[in-house]
Design goal:
Layout (H helix, E strand, L loop, with lengths): L1 E3 L11 E5 L6 E12 L2 E7 L11 E2 L3 E7 L3
Antiparallel strand pairs: 1-6, 2-3, 2-6, 3-4, 4-5
């Protein structure tokens, strides 16, 4: 895939990002479902396309490493 370091304000539902999980420390690639704000700032709710459940953690901008912008075959 082709990935870039994203502009966080431009990320939106439907975008695919790679983030570092605070729970497992793994790099996870999932799709943004929601972009929300709470008292700590902006966060994303994500889910893998083949998963039945939404990821358990709120993903903060500091966790986001890349945005997928294309796939080469």
């Amino acid at each position: 895939g082709i990935e870039i370091i994203p502009e966080f304000t431009s990320l939106k539902p439907g975008d695919i990002i790679a983030y570092e999980s605070q729970l497992t420390k793994d790099l996870i690639v999932h799709r943004i479902l929601e972009k929300k704000q709470d008292q700590e700032g902006m966060f994303f709710r994500l889910k893998g396309d083949n998963n039945t459940r939404v990821d358990p953690e709120k993903v903060r901008c500091v966790q986001v490493k890349y945005q997928l912008i294309g796939i080469l075959y």
